[in-house]
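Known limitations

Structure tokens in this collection are predictions and should be treated as such. Users comparing against experimental data should check residue numbering before alignment. To illustrate the layout, the record for Dihydroorotate dehydrogenase (quinone) is reproduced below. The input appears on top and the generated tokens appear beneath it.
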Amino acid sequence: MYKRLVLPLLFRFDAEAVHHFATSALKLILSIPGMRGLARSLYTVNDPRLRRTVFGIDFPNPVGMAAGFDKNAELVPELNALGFGFIEIGTVTPRPQPGNPQPRLFRLKADGGLINRMGFNNKGAGPAAGRLRNRPAGLIVGGNIGKNKDTPNESALDDYLISFRELFDVVDYFVVNVSSPNTPGLRDLQEREPLTRLLQALQQENETIATRSSVTPKPILLKIAPDLTDSQLDDIVAIVTETQIAGVIATNTTISREGLRTPANTVAEMGAGGVSGRPVRERATEVIRYLHQKSGGAFPIIGVGGIFTAQDALEKLRAGATLVQVYTGFIYEGPGMAKRICEGLLRDESFRG
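Generated tokens:
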């Protein structure tokens, strides 16, 4: 019903406006007494065969919501009720920022994709941390952190440290986002020398806070772009090994426009931004496979990019991912998506084995 009736109606309106309407409606409906429990019973698959322990965290299932959907940590219980095993909030920055001018989110309906140039629009790390202090126990939440647009790259570390400190007590793991194409100069931080310095400093702060608070350090992951060359991916493997971070999220959106079915002039009118969804599926899987093979499986990889079905998720897992995340696929597939993927995984002999 969602794809036949609801989606065509929603697609008549501006993509960002629909996002705000849909998330507000979800929050309102699930605030009605008993509705959250009903949604959980309808959409959650509770099966021990789905559980995964990754970088010291026990995940009830391997299907998570990627960063970008819930930038401000306002929908964590609601997304959990829809069957997701974990939710990644953000990207958050130290100071609130409006992001890039609208319109900045576009649908590639013929491709099953999106183009976005949101630009880290968010209310800031502090307010996100405040909301997460009240979240129900047992929900696994990752904190995706970035720098403010007006912060020069030479001072980027300060931004990441501020958000890291704000969120330390309220998230289960961190993701360092240096791969969004929508903040000018951000991807320059993916180069080996500045990235190594950034991750080493965060690891040092991680140990300092953990020692002072007598807790375990938080897993830190790096989110990378699908547009990296093999040489750059080799550097990523070396950096992860050197800095001893917990793993990698592969991948973010792509700046490539190759192979799109949407007419080129229509794509050109949409302008700059990162492409997500089915157009990035194959490349994301290639990156996962390359990292897994090159590293000998030395670190966990969260696979994201073009996952719509259980087969798409299995493709990422077989390539070397340990967990997967969705975003664009959720827009196209609807609220039962996580359940369908989990049920499909359980039907697959290679997954069960």
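For this record: The domain at 2-39+51-345 is CATH 3.20.20.70 (TIM Barrel). The two ends are 33 Å apart (CA to CA). Please report discrepancies through the issue tracker.
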